[in-house]
Design the sequence.
């Protein structure tokens, strides 16, 4: 109803208009309002622009630490410098460092200088006995030179013994051996006796007044330096000094008679025959064993006894040559554990920013090539370590989880120090905050939860992991979500490159394994769904054990969806090809063509697409990724999907040496991804995925209509892997990154006792 005007209004009067004064006020208010809106819009735009160009750097999570308190003495020593042939340090940021350098004489020092592990030098070196914490025995062969290194820790002190055993009856040349010791927190001073260096004294936090003693003082020449040094250049500092003296000896420190302190010392020996050299670091209040050989032998005996108990060996089992190989694999895994403290470089907007400080204790895949922590590798490493030393596994896993940021992201590669960065190509140093890595730790934790013996002793530690495992799971679930409900997509694929045959998926850990040829946001990945299915089960189990009642409805919903057999089949199963596949925009025919950039520059190779891509299954590829529903045991034992998967394993992947990573029927089999990028996960045999396959075969061999086929496959595959890894080790002295599917010959980085050390579990049949 329309409202009437006031009764006293005179309709005959002309309408009244606002006065000019009132109109101006209104205009001013409008202008002010618009100005404020514009200012806020501009401010918001500038803030958004700044956040795009300079987003906030990641912040370390404030969740309770996963690491156990007082689980180790940070001042105790270990072989925590895996990138060196022989190096020791403790587990705190300003730890002193010990290392070994050797070289030939005369005159070739620049070419035969040995310090950092280098697979191109042809040196055979392996920890044959090591517990990763208190001792290690290593054997090294450098042409005609053969020697061993032993170390043993006691409280906060350590002793090392180097025994030179010429391979031939006589050495062809002199050799120089140098022990060096660096303490950034101390001014070490020499003690001389009859003009010869007797010992070195120093003082630093955690060690008090310490002494450094060494054998054969009369044969020693020494040099030293003051100041702070980058550990990356310890070798170069020594080498420059050596070259100045024509490679014969180090310069004498006559100026040190004035008792001036130094932070870096080199103890130099020239040897031409059998010799034994000792180096002792003695912290205040400690005493080292007078009979070092006996102390080391006692540690070796303990190692063999612990190994037999951990892997359920009889006295007859222990005599097997396969067991000797297994002990070497375990020892090199443990002897390759490293310690790092520093910042990770993270891509934040346009510029990398430091994230940290972070502290990590971790095994490494390969001492010469990958001497740093890798997130998904470490889950596999600890499937071995947990059997030998469960507390060490808890220590390592807690360390990794404590590197998590506030959102739940963990860097997939840990490059925290200059020493770690030295072995990394520049393009791989900077980490991306949206890029994940397979959460293999959930596979590990699942095995721990299923062990009644382990949980009886260590349940408190596992419960302490839960808040961070939960946060990591949520980050994975939310950041890697796919375009369809119940799907997931690895981030980080290059959608614009013209120079790769198939853009890599580094986040998946399977690098060049073929995916959809044309990456889009609408693709989704089979293996990631399976990882999330496993992870949701583990988190659900932990939520129940820790009484996280408020989270139960959410995680149960996730678990049902991600483990739902119908959803798996709807999203990834091909009735036509009878296999599971990735889904995405894919061409079944791509190749390279040569293009001349101009008349001056060289020819480059670009990808050519011979058939237009289509959205659908990536069904011209069969290999490891297609096995993931089987590997994670998502298939009912009576399903046709299990039957067809087992058949395809036998027909397309099984070789006399293990399961190849990609079927020969795939167009990508053994194809280079770029001219400079040889095939990696395109046919080679990898031990970590073979271990998962053995574990799944063992599971499916227990019952069901396909149990006999699974059991037969298990027996064949296990025997093939054991014989091939062992024979390669016997022939070459190395464990290898991967093995050739046609010949069984080892390839890639070596020695590689990361997940290849799963040989230990395979030969002793230690499965979940």
Sequence:
């Amino acid at each position: 109803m329309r409202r009437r005007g006031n009764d006293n209004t005179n309709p005959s009067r002309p309408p009244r208009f606002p006065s000019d004064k009132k109109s101006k006020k209104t205009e001013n208010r409008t202008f002010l309002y618009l100005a404020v809106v514009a200012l806020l819009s501009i401010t918001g735009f500038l803030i958004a622009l700044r956040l795009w160009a300079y987003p906030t750097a990641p912040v370390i999570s404030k969740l309770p630490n996963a690491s156990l308190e007082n689980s180790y003495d940070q001042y105790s020593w270990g072989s925590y410098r895996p990138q060196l042939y022989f190096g020791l340090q403790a587990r705190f940021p300003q730890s002193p460092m010990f290392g070994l350098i050797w070289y030939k004489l005369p005159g070739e020092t620049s070419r035969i200088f040995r310090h950092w592990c280098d697979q191109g030098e042809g040196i055979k070196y392996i920890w044959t006995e090591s517990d990763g914490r208190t001792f290690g025995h290593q054997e090294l062969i450098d042409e005609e030179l053969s020697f061993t290194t032993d170390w043993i820790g006691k409280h906060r002190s350590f002793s090392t013994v180097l025994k030179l055993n010429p391979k031939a009856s006589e050495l062809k040349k002199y050799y120089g051996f140098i022990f060096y010791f660096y303490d950034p927190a101390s001014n070490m001073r020499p003690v001389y006796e009859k003009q010869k260096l007797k010992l070195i004294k120093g003082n630093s936090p955690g060690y008090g007044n310490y002494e450094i003693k060494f054998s054969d003082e009369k044969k020693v020449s020494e040099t030293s330096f003051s100041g702070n040094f980058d550990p990356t250049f310890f070798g170069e500092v020594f080498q420059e000094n050596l070259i100045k003296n024509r490679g014969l000896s180090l310069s004498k420190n006559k100026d040190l008679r004035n008792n001036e302190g130094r932070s870096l010392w080199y103890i130099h020996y020239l040897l031409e025959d059998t010799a034994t050299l000792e180096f002792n670091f003695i912290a205040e209040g400690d005493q080292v064993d007078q009979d070092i050989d006996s102390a080391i032998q006692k540690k070796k005996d303990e190692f063999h006894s612990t190994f037999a108990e951990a892997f359920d060996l009889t006295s007859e089992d222990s005599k097997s040559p396969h067991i000797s190989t297994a002990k070497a694999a375990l020892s090199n895994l443990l002897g390759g554990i490293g310690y790092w403290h520093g910042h990770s470089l993270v891509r934040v907007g346009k510029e990398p920013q430091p994230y940290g400080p972070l502290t990590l204790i971790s095994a490494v895949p390969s001492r010469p090539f990958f001497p740093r922590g890798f997130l998904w590798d470490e889950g596999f490493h600890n499937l071995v370590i947990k059997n030998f030393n469960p507390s060490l596994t808890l220590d390592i896993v807690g360390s990794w989880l404590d590197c998590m940021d506030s959102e739940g992201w963990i860097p997939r590669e840990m490059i925290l120090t200059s020493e770690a960065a030295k072995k990394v190509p520049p393009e791989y140093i900077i980490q991306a905050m949206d890029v994940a890595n397979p959460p293999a730790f959930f596979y590990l934790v699942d095995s721990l939860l299923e062990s009644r013996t382990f949980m009886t002793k260590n349940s408190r530690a596992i419960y302490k992991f839960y808040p961070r495992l939960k946060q990591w799971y949520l980050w994975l679930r939310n950041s890697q979500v796919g375009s369809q409900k119940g799907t997931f997509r690895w981030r980080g694929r290059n959608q614009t490159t013209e120079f790769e045959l198939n853009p890599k998926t580094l986040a998946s850990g399977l690098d060049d394994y073929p995916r959809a040829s044309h990456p889009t946001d609408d693709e989704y990945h089979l293996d990631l769904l399976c990882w999330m299915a496993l992870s949701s089960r583990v988190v659900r189990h932990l939520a129940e054990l820790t009484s996280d009642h408020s989270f139960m409805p959410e995680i149960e919903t996730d678990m049902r969806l991600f483990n739902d057999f119908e959803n798996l089949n709807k999203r990834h199963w091909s009735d036509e090809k009878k296999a599971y596949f990735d889904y995405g925009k894919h061409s079944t025919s791509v190749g390279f063509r040569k293009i001349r950039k101009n008349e001056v520059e060289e020819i480059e190779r670009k990808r050519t697409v011979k058939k237009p891509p289509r959205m659908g299954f990536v069904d011209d590829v069969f290999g490891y990724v297609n096995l993931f529903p089987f590997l994670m045991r998502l298939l009912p034992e009576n399903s046709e999907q299990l039957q067809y998967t087992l058949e395809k394993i036998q027909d397309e992947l099984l070789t006399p040496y293990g399961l190849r990573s990609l079927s020969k029927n795939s167009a990508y089999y053994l194809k280079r991804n770029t001219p400079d990028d040889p095939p990696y996960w395109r046919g080679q045999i990898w031990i970590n995925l073979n271990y998962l396959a053995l574990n799944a075969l063992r599971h499916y061999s227990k019952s069901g209509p396909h149990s006999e086929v699974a059991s037969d496959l298990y027996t064949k595959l296990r025997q093939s892997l054991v014989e091939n890894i062992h024979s390669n080790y016997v022939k070459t002295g190395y464990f290898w990154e991967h093995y050739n599917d046609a010949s069984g010959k080892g390839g890639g980085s070596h020695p590689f006792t990361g997940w290849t050390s799963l040989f230990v579990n395979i030969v002793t049949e230690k499965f979940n």
Observations:
- Confidence is low (pLDDT under 50) at residues 1-22, 251-258.
